[in-house]
Amino acid sequence: xxxxxxxxIRHGTVVTSSDTFVSDVxxxxxRIAALALGLxxxxxxxxxxxxxxxxxxxxxHVHLDQPSGDGIVMADDFDSGxxxxxxxxxxxxxxxxxxxKGQTLREALKVYHAKAEGKCHVDVxxxxxxxxxxxxxxxxELPALVEDGYTSLKVFMxxxxxxxxxxxxxxxxxxxxxxxxxxxxxxxxxxxxxYLIGRHEEEGRFxxxxxxxxxxxxxxxxxxxxxxxxxxxxxxPIVIVHVSNREAMEEICRARQRGQKIAGETCPQYLxxxxxxxxxxxxxxxxxxxxxPPRDKASQDACWEGLEQGVFDLT
Length: 315
Hints:
Elements: E1 5-15, E2 20-28, E3 31-36, E4 42-47, E5 52-53, E6 57-62, H1 78-87, E7 90-98, H2 105-116, E8 123-129, H3 135-147, E9 152-156, H4 166-179, E10 182-186, H5 190-202, H6 210-214, H7 217-234, E11 238-240, H8 246-257, E12 262-264, H9 268-272, H10 297-309
Parallel strand pairs: 1-4, 1-5, 6-7, 7-8, 8-9, 9-10, 10-11, 11-12
Antiparallel strand pairs: 1-2, 2-3
């Protein structure tokens, strides 16, 4: 007598890490127990004819219920965000746990775990955002948390209050090297951006479309090169996140040619939007503001190319 399953997904096109083939999927106690044709002894049978049956996705770059400034509330909390993830086929999300200045990492984690408690529809873990890399944080707290399984960090090269100086980034990277953690870097040159914002303010240019011209490609390219250089000095792999253009992609490719272990990421906004989307009437353009900003059509094409050619490991 064959095994009885809790659920069988029938006639779907199953996609694994190595193959794509038509098969039934037998599920028992929440786990895949069989891949074969002709499975039908189950409490529940789902017809997947003409559909792909995929493993649950992992979205490694998610911001949920995160403070963004006075009076600003994120549209998604852990309930709505993880519900969206499940409907989109993602069974795990990694959200960001933002350390605030003067706050210990454990205090920050306690806050974010409380935000997520009882609200998650998929598996959730956290990247630790390091904004205050004191000797105690890097010497004691971070190694202990890596031991506890919080093995990924994020640092910012832009945004006042979040940005780290180069020496702070080096110290954080060195701690990551010693503990086996992986660092993600947001690459934009804050000093250049501050200067350009000042120029725009003097000239009365405040419309959403000017977000793009205060954060030009060169500011992202330079910071990408600097982040890669800092990682080379410490000899540690890093992840360059949300790359928006060919010039930053080329920096990643050159670093790999030098022998560095680098992961690259782009995001849907750079695949679907351009700076023209910011140039709408009133504040409608503000709906498309992100950092780095969407670029031109050539940059959009480059990001698609980066996915096809393996410059980007993540999206």
